[in-house]
Amino acid sequence: MSAPLGVAVVGAGFMGGVHAEVLAAHPRAQLVAVCDLDQRAAQELAGRFAVPTVTDDLDRVLADDRVGLVVVTTPNALHADQAARALRAGRHVLVEKPLALTPDEIHGLLRLATERGLVLAHGSNFVQSPKFRRVRELVADAEAFGTPHLARVVVRNAGPDSGWCLDPALAGGGVLLDLGCHAVEICRWLLGGAEVRAVTARSQRVRRPDGPVEDQAVLLLEFADGALGQCDISWACPGGEEITTEVLGTTGRAGADLWTGMGVDAFSERGFASVWEPNKGWVRPEWEWVRASGYVHQDHAVVEAVLDSVPLPHSPAEAWVSSRILAAAEESAATGRTVELTSTPNGLPLPDAVPGGDRVH
């Protein structure tokens, strides 16, 4: 048996704790370091999982031969630099969303990982959710579902817990970046990675009309095959978090609410081949077991990619595509116009392959 994968968590906030909890329970991973400028937070996180090294110095972490994987969970504006430093130090990297602030920054990280033969993974936990993966499987059943023509993704909550999320210098944007990266990625993924040709967006400042960033937005995605995608995102949703998906096809529909119920809702005029009877009309398979938001599946896949050279189930190149779409959404929201996307913006072709990940669709 190979030695466990040594993991360093950079950023001891809420998301650092989520990844630490998942990876500490993995039989082939071992937490060896926690790094944060807030030493109290770092000590507290390290104490929960008996992590031996606590530091505020990223260079010390990257010089530690025990560290094979660096998990970056710091404020958004720090992601690109810290991930690049880790890759240059020969470390595999998992970056909490967003992978970076701009398509160009993400492209640079993809190139760096490709050149160095390292795994680069990004926070895409909701596409690892068993509920949403099941929805995607049902949508792919063309005999029962027909041709998908509309996808709707809702990602809403009552607002961020961390104050830095409202500081553009640290967050890089508002709800468009924070929740939009999830919604756009889920929407494309549900439709099989379809190409987006145009984006129309509208944004609002609901709770803080004079605030520095938007807290609510709606995006309309026009796909190359004629399908439409709607992304509804908000930090101004009373009552807590809501994350739902729905896809309509010519002969069926399927969707799921991440936090309500144990299964998915599906309808087919013809009958699904892959669900239990009854398989026509409305199907609500409560027997489908759910492991909530997908963090366990996501982080376990990263460990397998590093130790076993198994391709990631979701390529980091998808973050580059999502970043382009979100940049277009920001432009559309600012100008009130629909923004068309070119295939290779800024003359930057996507790397042919990313170690540990499939090529982007």
UniProtKB/TrEMBL annotation:
Source organism, top-level taxon: Bacteria
Domain GFO/IDH/MocA-like oxidoreductase residues, every copy: 132-253
Location of the region described as Disordered in the Swiss-Prot/TrEMBL record: 336-361
Pfam family, any one: GFO_IDH_MocA_C3
Keywords (A to Z) from UniProt: Oxidoreductase
GO molecular function, one term: oxidoreductase activity
SUPFAM superfamilies, A to Z: Glyceraldehyde-3-phosphate dehydrogenase-like, C-terminal domain, NAD(P)-binding Rossmann-fold domains
Domain Gfo/Idh/MocA-like oxidoreductase N-terminal: start-end pairs: 6-122
InterPro entries recorded: Gfo/Idh/MocA-like_OxRdtase_N (IPR000683), Gfo/Idh/MocA_oxidrdct_glycsds (IPR050463), GFO_IDH_MocA-like_dom (IPR055170), NAD(P)-bd_dom_sf (IPR036291)
Name assigned to this protein: Myo-inositol 2-dehydrogenase / D-chiro-inositol 1-dehydrogenase
Originating organism: Streptoalloteichus hindustanus
